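Q: Hi! First time doing this. I have a protein sequence and I read that you can turn it into a structure. Is that right? Here it is:
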Amino acid sequence: MTAIALRTELDVAELLLAKGWLPEEINSILEFPLPKAAFHHLPTARATHQQPAVTKVTATPVQYARQILQAAGWLEQELDSLLKPCLPTINPWLNQTVQAQSPTAWLKLASPAVSLQQYRRTMAIKRLSSFSCVITGICLAVALAS
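A: Yes, that's right. Below is the predicted 3D structure, encoded as structure tokens:
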């Protein structure tokens, strides 16, 4: 029988500390940030200047942390539950157009991206609604079986 490895935010912090990350950087990518006292219990010895298995070519720290953890053998499901989602950001220089007819309308700005707070609120509402559907289904099954 195979055992399931339950990895937590402490495991992420320990691995990233060994790679030279700072506690503030680690908390910025975690779905549920660790208190500062938790970092005092982890080994804070910096890794000797080893060449990492992946190179830092990504734009965001979340994507870089995903690469490091995947190189260490972590599964995608573990990373999805521990790290913040990679939300698309708006590049303000992306959709700029110059209009010759109207000198006052220089920029055509893109619509704002979904904030992390809105994303979490939406996911919480989805989880609560699905949980209530499950409870209702169970109650109906029990009522019909009686």
